[in-house]
Amino acid sequence: MSNPGNSKYVKKLNRMRILNMIKDYEPISRQQLSEQTGLTPSAITGIIRELIEMNFVKEVGLGESHGGRKPVKLKFNCKAGYVIGLEITQHETVFAIADLKNQPKDIQSVAINMATPQEGIPLLIAEIKKLIEQQEHSKKFFMAIGIAFPGLLHLHNGLVKRAVNLGPAWNEYPIKEALESALGLPVVIENNAKAAALAEKWFGCGTAYSNLAYINMGEGISTGILINDSILAGSHGYAGQIGHMVLDSNGPLCNCGHRGCLEAICACPALIRKVKTEISFIDKEDPLVKIWEDKQDIRLADIVLAAKVPGSYAESLFRQVGKNMGLVLANLINLYNPEAIFIGGKMAVAGDLFIDVIRDIVSTHAFPEIANFTVISISALGANTGAIGACALVLKQLLQSSESAILDDPERILRKKGFFWSRSQII
Ligand SMILES: [Zn+2]
Questions:
Q1: Burial level of 309, CB count in 10 A (0-12/13-18/19+)?
Q2: What is the fold of 82-196+385-425?
Q3: How far is the CA of 121 from the centre of ligand 1 (A)?
Q4: CA 261 – ligand 1 centroid, Å
Q5: Structure pTM?
Q6: Average pLDDT of 125-135?
Q7: 4-76 is classed CATH 3.90.190.20
Q8: pLDDT-wise least confident of 316-325, 329-338, 341-350, 393-402
Q9: From ligand 1's centre to the CA of 275, what distance in Å?
Q10: What are the residues whose beta carbon lies below 5 Å from ligand 1 (ion)?
Q11: Among the four 174, 321, 322, 418, which has the fewest Cβ within 10 Å?
């Protein structure tokens, strides 16, 4: 403890601890903080002075006196800083801005072609700069960026290992470094399904569950699995590739190079491809054929619309999605005994068209002792779960990680706008 480096670290941990106590138990007085933490009143006074100078804490009036002076109440100032969360997919990126209590706002989707990083990353950087410089955001103190990314990631060095639904140009791409050096803000990256699983746990329907799986159904299919509230990472951090479970070894070719993977049969591009291949064989009165004749194109929204008509081709297509997803989820339930499974991502808009089929198939094929207690439902956070999860992840790093730089040096925070962190200062 006499080592100056060590005492600086302890001081930082105490600042972080006090800030989190104020955030979780506000309004709270200095005396209550001293009683709760065991830190001396003078230590608390010093830490609170710094936190007020940094604008993270505000005095909000007087509390009840229990003899002596009335105590001053303190509150966490969640507007002192903001983070940006993104979910990247091949054709569009969802952006969200959240304050320090993760109240995401300004959620918007921007069309960006991410087939290669050489093309996509400069466009992404331009969009982030545009967002930060917008009039309503220009006075905000942006502290970090979270990225939910569709692929295998090396979290330690910030590299993309492989992103089969974006393209081979992403292999080994240093996404964290590229964004940090261009934007001057710390960047936290995570697989999109894992980020979404955390969002579901922290802010969605999953708050009551410690063992849940979030299934991201969109351009691909992947899962984030929580075991006892912790993300299942696997030995290299690549766990969760449920979309590449093989359903039919002679089935359609998958972007991963194998045949008959779940996502090559049930993900959004697979459904659109199937419709386009079979359109000339579909009954001429079918609503999907009429849409095709009008537009010469088919999108997910068209298939969802057509599926509302009983007996339509699209209705049976989603029933088939439910059957295939049901088989995979029955296996997942038998294997890992989750309390709940939430289905989100772009295809969640069609959830009502296949969720009951999934439940039926699961109840037929999974062990009843396990499946009868597993909740299966559509995510309440909808298609924005990944971006909300990315905000949550970066806030967790900023406010809870002992390695975070947020409260390292009060002087730096005081400089606020115009101040940018170096790359090594977060995680
Ligand atoms: Zn595959």
A1: middle
A2: Nucleotidyltransferase; domain 5 (3.30.420)
A3: 25
A4: 5
A5: 0.84
A6: 92
A7: no
A8: 393-402
A9: 20
A10: 244, 254, 256, 258, 261
A11: 418
